[in-house]
Design brief:
DapB_N_CS, Dihydrodipicolinate Reductase, domain 2, 12 strands, binds ligand LZUJQKHR, amino-acid biosynthesis, binds NADPH dihydro-nicotinamide-adenine-dinucleotide phosphate, alpha/beta, diaminopimelate biosynthesis
């Protein structure tokens, strides 16, 4: 069995990942942790999540549990994630990172750290979204420069980062399809007398409200027609299943930085 440590085990994703890990034939829920001072310390994450006993109690910090597992699954907060990655790299323990809001510098640092440990990092672990990433790149490359590319994402009112990591990755995939650099053409807000839209820009807009789990639409708007491709998450279970699948896949792999395309075999599509 592969022993799994869950970071942020009491969180929205941490609880569903715990359930998926407990159901997975190759995975064992070995340890759980939250930050020092969390009211969840000492509690059973399964009981908190309403799915039974996880057989573990939530401990304080990754250092307390790192020797108990083969892989750490992290869906927490960007400011914490890099610290966890340094500890996992030092112990050569595999990691699955779903936390969004990581900066370009964080991702560079992760690449450097990954010479010491295998790590899957992806802003969205749902199968459907990873297919959507590929469709976005392919559709952009087929339609070319005559179609304006816009992305709209909707999430719940507790989400801390914007735009979503998924929307940014979608924009990056579409930009790659038309050979543009997102850092040069990304537009994240519009307000006031902004003038006509340029052909190159790729717009990314954010909606926050209620308990929306996650919805992403990419628009290709051309002369007299448009294509809209939408992914809607009905629950967090598809993300959590993806995280469990990634944990089973990455444990024992060679050191390196991997994505869900590697886990799902979509790399060459
Ligand atoms: N890749 C993917 O497929 C998906 C990614 N996400 C991403 O996952 C992340 C978490 O989302 P969600 O579960 O909704 O958020 P939550 O806030 O519900 O959960 C995060 C958990 O991490 C805990 N946490 C924060 N800092 C630390 C720390 N230093 N040490 C240990 N635990 C810590 C939080 O504790 P506290 O509340 O005390 O701060 C909380 O319990 C976000 O970045 C989100 O965008 C979400 C869904 C899918
Ligand atoms: O915070 C969330 O909830 C989600 N975050 C991820 C993101 O930022 O892309 C993925 C998913 O859409 C849910």
């Amino acid at each position: 069995m592969i022993n799994v440590i869950i970071a942020g085990a009491a969180g929205r994703m941490g609880q569903r990942i715990g359930y998926m890990v407990s159901q997975h034939p190759e995975l064992n829920y070995a340890a759980a942790f939250e930050a020092a001072g969390s009211p969840s310390i000492g509690r059973d994450p399964g009981e908190m999540g309403g799915w039974g006993s996880a057989g573990v109690r939530i401990e304080e910090g990754l250092e307390a549990v790192i020797d108990k597992g083969d892989v750490v699954i992290d869906f927490t907060f960007h400011a914490a994630t890099m610290g966890f990655a340094k500890i996992a790299a030092a112990h050569k323990t595999a990691m699955v990172i779903g936390t969004t809001g990581l900066s370009a510098e964080n991702l560079d640092e992760l690449k450097t750290l990954s010479v010491d440990f295998p790590c899957v990092q992806a802003p969205n672990m749902a199968v459907g979204v990873n297919v959507l990433f590929k469709l976005a790149e392919k559709t952009a490359s087929i339609l070319g420069d005559d179609y304006n590319i816009e992305i709209v994402e909707l999430h719940h009112n507790k989400k801390k980062d914007a735009p979503s990591g998924t929307a940014l990755k979608l924009a990056e995939m579409a930009a790659s399809g038309v050979n543009r650099n997102l850092a040069e053409v990304g537009v994240y807000e519009r307000n006031g007398i902004i003038g006509e839209r340029t052909m190159e820009e790729i717009g990314v807009q954010t909606v926050r409200g209620g308990d929306i789990v996650g919805e992403h639409t990419i628009y290709f708007c051309g002369p007299g027609e448009r294509i809209e491709i939408t992914h809607r998450a009905h629950s967090r279970d598809n993300f959590a299943q993806g995280a469990a699948k990634a944990a089973a896949w990455v444990a024992g792999k060679e050191p390196g930085l991997y994505t869900m395309f590697d886990v799902l075999g979509l790399q060459d599509l």
